[in-house]
Amino acid sequence: MNSLIIKHAKSIEAPHDLFDIYIENGKIKAIAPNLSLDANENNNNNNNKIVDLKGQHFVSAGWIDAHTHCYAASPIYYDEPDLAGAALGVTTMIDAGSVGAFDIDHFYKLTCAAKTNVFAFLNISQIGIIVQNELADMDNINHQALKDALERYPHFIKGIKARMSSSVVGSNGIKPLLEAKKMQQENGGLPLMVHIGNNPPNLDEIADLLSCGDIITHCFNGKPNRILDINGQLKDSIKNALSRGVILDVGHGGASFSFDVAEQAMRIGTYPDLISSDIYHKNRTNGQVCSLAFVMSKFLCMGFSMPQILACVTHKAADLLHLEHKGYLKVGYDADITIFDIKNERIELTDAHGEIRIGAQSIVPIAAIVNGEFLEDINKA
Fold this sequence. Notes:
With 381 residues, the protein is an alpha/beta fold. The protein has 13 helices and 15 strands. The radius of gyration is 21 Å and the shape is globular.
């Protein structure tokens, strides 16, 4: 029996009310102030590990990054899951279309060696992103290959991904998205994540095809094909999509986040459902992304509250992405936990267009607990 006890933790909601967490075999077994375990249980368990936070650090359910690229063998967008994930406080990563049906077996094998939980949104192109224009050739869209991959990995593949920008689809316009919707229906209505960028196809065409549970990623991009009209109001197609239950995902990335767009959207009452990084090796080590925590800090700077921010990377993410037993700091759930601080310090924040905001606080991950394992040395990986 492997167990872990976290002592004197604090939460964002009640920072002065310290509590303990008892974890056993990868599950949260108890949460209470001054938690007292059964004496016989303690005596019979020689593998107890105790981590005392001494009231100095916050804890939350493990952070979920809903848009990443962590297939280490990708020729373009690659990273190691544990370096982009657990080392940065993220306990669960969703790879957003790095691989298609051709490479899913190899990707799954690699993820089995990672400490960080990894799931996939399978690219509707069977070749994945081995080129930037994977949907310019409609022959890359193979319905049977995708169906076979889903049957092999029903718990690993959480949805499908279609990158709907001009550089990806070429002259095919909206056609790949029409095929993606067919694939979605052929496979039980699994979630569909749609990348929006430069047009064509126009955002109105894209949004009109989306249904409840579909995800618009790069929702605050500053390109002409943005969610706001010239008057700074939501486009009617986006209003209608949101009323149908379409989900907004940040997907920051190196070219897909604008402070101006995000601030105006939130000013008129349009908030993200998911805060994600679109992280990969290049923008993690030399770019505006750096980490999910850094992206979260940008929303803190823009006036989003910490409870709102945490919801977008914990329980809302788990619910919207259908991640069972994750996203909640509750008894019975997976023991995925993020330990973090909020530092009062001047921080310079840059968007994908070089616009700068100066924040007064930063969110700093301290450690990750994944499946009940305290990963204190993960930064040395």
